[in-house]
């Protein structure tokens, strides 16, 4: 069992008041709040250990380099990767996906080949592939989403073929909370010789990700969704593929030798880390993973599961609420609409009661169109949320709906 009251004292922002009400932060799918230890780690680094990494011979540069590389190993351990050179630090999920979409298709695709995504992807796991399709004459195909918010796995047989080169799929939907069954997708893709990228932006904080068990070829996630700062993210990829891919960006650190006639590139992972990386963010990410494991990841997952079950149960009694996404396996996210009332109005009025939720298309417009709604109201949980916050939210929602009606 988690000691939630103790956990809440670790997150300074949770004692904020909003318009005179205690903050009820239910927008964790957009970004999570940061525990004191992560904030302290950043301040400590800038106060004591700040020097640009890799190219200095002086003390501060060496110590900063050491922390950055230790953070890489820490990240590898958190996701079960054996080779820390397969961990590329990026700015976040979006950059990680773009890195792959801008480089891999160039070496494995020919015009007419196909890239398969799902109907529930965040724009950052759709648009980079659309750009690749336009650039290289490829076709984008889509795994449909069923009415309950699960993927239509029965479509895989028809969609996967020798033409499929890359499959890009989210582990957990940021709109519906659906936990996808990645096994048939990965196995099916590999059976036709395609590579798989899994968007773990939502999954990284709410499920165990083990790259060996997952057996995908790339995973992408952002630090800010897992109690770490903004601006640091990760791409994990299989060494053989990362070796085969050309550089994504040119600049310092990614080179081996530069002349005006020819430039050769650095070894992994530096080939993909052009310029000064966020070497303070990387250690803050490592600290966030330490924190999660100190608290107990299994207990966090169970707690968030209980929160979701409770919220689903409680919201069912609110008149007029229609949940969008009722998949059998869901994690930490509840989306709903109230017919005749715009989600934006609900979100804005909840805010006036100190309750932070997200409204709109959640950067997944095709999915929102699929459900023929103008957007949803989304509540999303983290380890520090409580049942009593759900009660406050439900009471607030009741009140807001009474006023809006
Ligand atoms: N994929 C999913 C499933 C997400 O939820 C998000 C963030 N909402 C992203 C990708 C993009 O993450 P970022 O903006 O941190 O790059």
Written overview of the protein:
- The chain is an alpha/beta fold and 405 residues long.
- The chain has two domains: 4-30 and 296-404, Aspartate Aminotransferase, domain 1, CATH 3.90.1150; 40-292, Aspartate Aminotransferase, domain 2, CATH 3.40.640.10.
- The chain is built from 14 helices and 17 strands.
- The strands form five sheets. It has a seven-stranded mixed beta sheet with strand order 4-10-9-8-7-5-6, sandwiched between helices. Strands 13-14-17-16 form a four-stranded antiparallel beta sheet, covered by helices on one side. A two-stranded antiparallel sheet has the order 1-2.
- Helix 5 links the parallel strand 5 (114-118) and strand 6 (139-143).
- The protein is globular and about 70 Å long.
- The model has no long low-confidence stretch (mean pLDDT 97).
- 4'-deoxy-4'-aminopyridoxal-5'-phosphate binds at residues 30, 92-94, 122, 124-125, 170, 174, 199, 201-202, 222, 363.
Tally the structural domains.
2
Kindly report how far apart the N and C termini lie.
40 Å
Overall outline: globular
The first-level CATH class of the largest domain is given as Alpha Beta
Which structural class is indicated by helix and strand composition? alpha/beta
The CATH homologous superfamily of the largest domain: Type I PLP-dependent aspartate aminotransferase-like (Major domain)
